[in-house]
Amino acid sequence: MDVIEVASQHRRQLIDITSFVQQAVGAGEVEEGICHVFVPHTTAAPLVSENADPAVGDDLLAALAKMVPDIRFRHAEGNSDAHLFAALIGPGLVLPVSGGELVLGRWQAVFLLELDGPRRREVWITCLRA
Ligand code: ZN
Asked: Are residues 114 and 13 in contact, defined by beta-carbon separation less than 8 angstroms?
């Protein structure tokens, strides 16, 4: 397993980690298989989205801000919205590896979605042969 360390700068932020994931896949010995990307946190999540137009990420973050439910959160840490979104998005991605490389659609990139930064985060990457 490879561990990527990422430092976020804002409370909510999308960080493109595609090149780090690609590096981890390239350093492995899997020609054909899958790459599992796991975020071991409860207030951050991995996701695949577009990286061509930064406005897509801006829109996603703006939409998340509007989606915080109007309820009385009981969790005393004050970051229940971050826990909610991380739980809904999920902690892991399974991505294809072919020819020894991570394979994504033309407009796709792998992001770490920070939901309660700034913090230091880890992303765990495991490649499995098909
Ligand atoms: Zn909390």
From this structure: yes
How far, in Å, is the centroid of ligand 1 from the Cα of 78? 7
Question: How far, in Å, from the CA of 121 to the mean position of ligand 1?
Answer: 15
Whether the model clears a pTM of 0.85, i.e. scores above it, the answer is yes
**pLDDT at position 29 over 90:** no
Separation CA 34–CA 92 (nearest Å): 12
Please state, in angstroms and rounded to a whole number, the distance separating the CA atoms of residues 27 and 17: 16
Enumerate the β-bridge partners of residue 37: 93, 125
Rounded Cα distance between 34 and 101, Å, is: 10
pLDDT of 37 above 90 = yes
2-129 falls under which CATH superfamily? YjbQ-like (2.60.120.460)
pLDDT band at 97 (very low <50, low <70, confident <90, very high): very high
User: Does the pLDDT of residue 28 top 90, yes or no?
Assistant: no
